[in-house]
Known about the structure:
The chain has ten helices and ten strands. It folds into two domains: 1-83 and 169-186 and 199-254, Rossmann fold, CATH 3.40.50.300; 84-168, Rossmann fold (3-Layer(aba) Sandwich). By secondary structure, it is of the alpha/beta class. It has helices at residues 44-52, 74-81, 99-104, 113-116, 124-136, 152-165, 182-197, 210-216, 239-246, 248-253; strands spanning 6-15, 18-28, 33-37, 59-64, 67-68, 84-88, 170-174, 202-206, 219-224, 227-233. Adenosine-5'-triphosphate binds at residues 15, 20, 38, 40-46.
Amino acid sequence: MNRPLLDVTSLAKSFGGRKVLDGVDFSVSPGELVAFLGANGSGKSTTLRCVMGITEADAGTIKLGGQDLGLLQGKSLQQARRRAAMIFQKIHLVPRRTALENVCTGALARMSTGRSLSPLFFPDDILQEAMDCLDRVGLADRAHDRVSRLSGGQQQRVAVARALCQRADVVLADEPVSALDPHAAEQVMQLLAGLAHEHGLAVAAVLHQPDLALRHADRAIGLLGGRLVFDSPVSSLGAADLDHLYAPDRMAAA
Ligand SMILES: Nc1ncnc2c1ncn2[C@@H]1O[C@H](COP(=O)(O)OP(=O)(O)OP(=O)(O)O)[C@@H](O)[C@H]1O
């Protein structure tokens, strides 16, 4: 087994005295697509947000590419965090800009200040890299279209291309397909699986559709009330595991 690119231990978080993550441990290795499953409010998004530093964890260790983020600060922390990119259900792109311009912004953080002052005038090397990233998500022919003219599924693929242009090797996706129709959802899931299986990225995706997890993920992590209740290869997941997550009262009554 490869060394994990993302390794999380004893992650804990409370909001207003209410524990929403209670000692969550998991890892994601290069080449793996891991699905996070769980009912509303079970802590899936908070887990990903803590990894990204969008939400500050109360306790726990987060290692990205072997580096313990808790031991880093300033520029070295920023640099270590750049290995991870997050994509969201509500796609955060600039609608009036082209797909290519949006993808280029993935490179902003690693450009020198002088070069990044004019984000809409990207140098040729970045434009070329962004084109390559769009090509990888199958949208090179739409590079010069405004994002507002693309479908939801295409926009989500542009968001994935932007993560690639950031050169992230850990991609965290929070309900990436919840707003998409079944065909577009399938395409985005195939793309995420391809990033893991063909390009060796570590991918974790929060999914509300267990069938998508069963079809595309290698492993599924189940959260219930902020606790991890299983972490298993999808091939060994059964109906009882899913009932445990989505109908715990029924399980208790059985
Ligand atoms: N900023 C916040 N302030 C207060 N409570 C929060 C905050 N963010 C999340 N919570 C609470 O933490 C719990 C876990 O939320 P989280 O969004 O992680 O769940 P989730 O499993 O992703 O749910 P969903 O499937 O509905 O998106 C919920 O009870 C939620 O209300």
